[in-house]
Amino acid sequence: MVTHLDLSDRRVARYGELLVRMVDDFETHAPSEFVERYRRATVKSAAHWRLARSLMPQGTSSNLRAWAPYPMYFGRAAGSHVTDLDGNRYIDCAMAQGVLAAGHLHPAVIEAVEAQLRRGTVYGGSHRDEATACELLLERYPCHERVRMVNSGSEAVLHAVRLARAATGRSIILKVEGTYHGNYDPTMVSFRPTLEEAGPVERPSAVPFTAGLAANALADTVVIPFNDAGALAAILDERREQVAAVLVEPVILNMGCTLPHADYFPAVRELCDDNGVLLIFDEAKTGTKIAWGGGPEFTGVQPDVTCVAKAIGGGFPVGAILANESTMRLIDQAVVLQTGSFAGNPVSVAATIVTLRDVLTREAHRQTSAVNLALAEAYERVIADTGLAAHVVTAGVTGALFLTDAPVTNYRDDLAIDPAAWDTYWLGMLLEGVIPQAYGLDDSWTISVAHDEGDVRAVGDAFAKVAPVIAEVIDRRAADVSLR
Ligand SMILES: Cc1ncc(COP(=O)(O)O)c(C=O)c1O
């Protein structure tokens, strides 16, 4: 029998309260002047929000789109820009939560999709192009031998975990504190726990990220700190022969852009090998972006299983699991079942082939990474000029502004960021015509093949206007604290 977490559970109740409050009023700590300007600039979005809220929880199709004070609604997008219902045009560095490394409406992707739409949208059977997409993925990930296509990152993670459990005959999954891996219950844990609930740094508590998990959903999830091979070794020592896999992003793009120490992944690899544990790289967000060849190219370490999604589809829903022949034999022999009505659907596969083969090429990655570095420099110049306590980290075509001058190497460091400073950054940049990153102080930006130097200059100019206001907010909050 599946029972559900008791809502009186202290941690779940707190998250529930937060959600209820958000439905009434998406709270922002940005200065009221920014909020007023936002309201004046987004009148049509505000009107639509009222309608949407009467029909959809939070007026959105994903909780991560509940932008404060209310979401804007979009009508058009092309290249590096999106336009909202009020006709405001923004330089888009969120790129659909990291999906659009190919840019909005890349002509080659659209052409391939239009051609496929005339041949069929879904066959309910297999088709020739799936194999081409798999070959292209294996070119980027030569450490793997077989691929299964799915529809999303969440699905890829779910199947990868199942595969790892079946391959090892063990059930525990080690998951990094402060990271997001999609909607699969055993990974909906310790995404943004408060310091009080997070437990000891080297042995974090498993804090549910949502109500509604099965009572035992987290029984086999153990949370580990990032960049701490010693903590991993200790847990493996204790839970010897129970751990199926370590599930980790090679660069944590759901903690800004938190880089691994150079010796972290080699040590993780060795510990996994020594203990018969599979290493799963969740590259839903990093794939094609931190390097052309993703995590293995970036870290020099080869995982046993890789999940990819988002950017590989050029704007269409897709995901894939990659592993070696012996692991995938479990699916081949139907020991592990992996199914899906839309898995490998021809439209997404057509988009994936063009995206991987023709758009996100090695040369495109080099060029876009250079644009991304120029963007980081533009931010750093403003930080130096204003003395703002902040720094920028990049990886390939992604990056993040950390509103702290201390390095961020794990979730506990990330907690130093003041949400009021971040809200001010977010809303201030929107008012200057820039969506600076995916929404949320834990998220990151994506630069696409469509972004150019003009975009970089405009983002830098926008930040130059907003940074002094962020600095004021930080100073005021520090003064408030010292008065208490
Ligand atoms: C690392 C990671 N894994 C999995 C997912 C889930 O992917 P999807 O939203 O395609 O289900 C995400 C989504 O942001 C992600 O960042």
Written overview of the protein:
The chain has 17 helices and 14 strands. With 484 residues, it is an alpha/beta fold. The chain has a seven-stranded mixed sheet, with helices on both faces. Mean pLDDT is 94; it is low at 1-23. Bound molecules: pyridoxal-5'-phosphate. Residues 97, 152-154, 157, 180-182, 249, 254, 282, 284-285, 309-310 line the site of pyridoxal-5'-phosphate (PLP).
Structural class by SSE content: alpha/beta
Tally of separate helices = 17
Strand content: 5-15%
Distance between the termini: 51 Å
Q: Order the strands across the largest sheet as they lie in space.
A: 4-10-9-8-7-5-6
Whole-angstrom Rg: 22 Å
Overall shape: globular
Hetero ligands: pyridoxal-5'-phosphate
Number of strands: 14
Mean pLDDT across the residues is 94
- Uncertain segments are 1-23
| Helix percentage | 40-55%
Quickly list its features.
484 residues, alpha/beta, disordered N terminus, globular
Topology:
Layout: H1 10-24, H2 32-41, H3 43-55, E1 74-78, E2 81-84, E3 89-92, H4 95-98, H5 107-117, H6 129-140, E4 146-150, H7 153-168, E5 172-176, H8 195-198, E6 221-224, H9 229-238, E7 243-248, H10 264-275, E8 278-283, H11 294-299, E9 305-309, E10 319-323, H12 325-332, H13 346-359, H14 362-386, E11 391-395, E12 398-402, H15 411-414, H16 419-431, E13 434-435, E14 445-446, H17 453-483
Pyridoxal-5'-phosphate is lined by residues 97, 152-154, 157, 180-182, 249, 254, 282, 284-285, 309-310.
Summarize this entry quickly.
With 484 residues, the chain is an alpha/beta fold. It contains 17 helices and 14 strands. The protein has a 7-stranded mixed beta sheet, with helices on both faces.
